[in-house]
């Protein structure tokens, strides 16, 4: 699936998007998998309460299942307006 | 309904005039324009707005549809810029038209509250000393409970 990062999450990880082949069942499982990869991921995902997630461009939560999802995005709370 | 997410500047007055044309039966038009504010002590060089192409348009359209379901609106306009902006630039505007003023005011207020916390935009303040992401405020999240 495509995994996208925005704002300081993008800056910490060092790229805006990547393609990830994963068997993770939920968003939280995917986060665990990414955290184990490298320090930059561990830094970006250190505090999940500071993050939001969207699944196929709809806001979701970290317990959400990933079955059938094509695009997951991680970002800090939004500051529009 | 018109939703525009764009890097280009816009003219709030011209947008409001265009929005107001042909709204028969609408007795009230309310508009709000957000302007890039300098820091309290000055020194803001630019504000950079990042967004999530695709999701941004969908999220705003969804918020506007919710407003249309809650209030009887003749029309809704949302414009939001992204990219690099300078202090004093118009960053976004909303406009609502309704038969009566209260619906137009409330719908515009609702749109603003939801755009702040549910539309995927992130602001970064650039100063001579560096750059810093604007943190979301608890009050903005709390504001949603009003609705």
TrEMBL record, chain A:
Task: List all membrane-crossing ranges.
Answer: none
Q: Which Pfam families match?
A: ThiS
Q: Which InterPro entries match?
A: Beta-grasp_dom_sf (IPR012675), Mopterin_synth/thiamin_S_b (IPR016155), ThiS/MoaD-like (IPR003749)
UniProt xrefs under NCBIfam families: moaD
- Which protein is depicted? Molybdopterin converting factor subunit 1
- UniProt source species: Pukyongiella litopenaei
TrEMBL record, chain B:
Q: Name one GO molecular function term.
A: molybdopterin synthase activity
| UniProt GO BP | Mo-molybdopterin cofactor biosynthetic process
| Superkingdom | Bacteria
Q: What CDD domains does the database record attribute to this sequence?
A: MoaE
EC? Answer: 2.8.1.12
Q: In which pathway does it act?
A: Cofactor biosynthesis; molybdopterin biosynthesis
Provide the catalytic activity annotation: 2 [molybdopterin-synthase sulfur-carrier protein]-C-terminal-Gly-aminoethanethioate + cyclic pyranopterin phosphate + H2O = molybdopterin + 2 [molybdopterin-synthase sulfur-carrier protein]-C-terminal Gly-Gly + 2 H(+)
Per the record, a Pfam family? MoaE
Q: Does the keyword Transport apply?
A: no
Does the record bear DNA-binding in its keywords?
no
Keywords on record: Molybdenum cofactor biosynthesis
Subunit structure, as described in the record: Heterotetramer of 2 MoaD subunits and 2 MoaE subunits. Also stable as homodimer. The enzyme changes between these two forms during catalysis.
Question: What role does it play?
Answer: Converts molybdopterin precursor Z into molybdopterin. This requires the incorporation of two sulfur atoms into precursor Z to generate a dithiolene group. The sulfur is provided by MoaD.
- Family statement drawn from the similarity comment of this UniProt entry: Belongs to the MoaE family.
- Write the protein's name: Molybdopterin synthase catalytic subunit
Organism of origin is: Pukyongiella litopenaei
């Amino acid at each position: 699936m495509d995994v996208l990062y925005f704002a300081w999450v993008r800056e910490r990880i060092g790229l805006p998007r990547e393609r990830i082949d994963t068997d993770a069942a939920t968003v939280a499982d995917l986060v665990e998998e990414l955290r184990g990869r490298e320090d930059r991921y561990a830094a970006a995902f250190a505090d999940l309460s500071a993050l939001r997630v969207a699944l196929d461009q709809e806001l979701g939560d970290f317990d959400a299942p990933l079955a059938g999802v094509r695009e997951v995005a991680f970002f800090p709370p939004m500051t529009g307006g | 309904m018109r939703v525009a997410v764009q890097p280009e500047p816009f003219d709030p007055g011209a947008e409001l005039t265009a929005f107001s044309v042909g709204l028969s039966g609408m007795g009230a038009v309310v508009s709000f324009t957000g302007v890039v504010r300098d820091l309290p002590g000055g020194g803001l060089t630019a504000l950079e707005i990042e967004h999530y192409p695709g999701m941004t348009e969908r999220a705003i359209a969804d918020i506007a549809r919710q407003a249309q379901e809650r209030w009887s609106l003749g029309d809704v306009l949302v414009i939001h810029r992204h990219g690099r902006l300078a202090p004093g630039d118009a960053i976004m505007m909303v406009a609502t038209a309704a038969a009566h003023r209260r619906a137009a005011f409330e719908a515009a207020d609702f749109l603003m509250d939801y755009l702040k916390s549910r539309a995927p935009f992130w602001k970064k303040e650039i100063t001579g000393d560096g750059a810093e992401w604007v943190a979301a405020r608890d009050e903005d999240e709390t504001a949603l409970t009003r609705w």
